[in-house]
Write a structure and sequence with these properties.
- The structure is a single chain.
- By secondary structure, the chain is an all-alpha fold.
- The protein has one domain.
- It contains five helices and no strands.
Amino acid sequence: MSLRTAAQARAELAEKGISITQWAIANKFSPNLVFEVLGGRKKCLRGQSRTIAIKLGLIEGEIVTDVANALARPASQALAA
């Protein structure tokens, strides 16, 4: 997936007729936080702001849902090591 700028993300949503608020609510995020991410007021290093940036295609990364096992290796990698 190629990364996009905040302006490109806004434009793509607009082309599809989706408001930023609609996108935020559909993805269970605070609309204010999504606007802060798109406005560059959040660093998007961790938490919901990082997840938002990944879903919008602004940064590369993995969305971790099980924080307790975030560093655990899958069984196939554990055998190779």
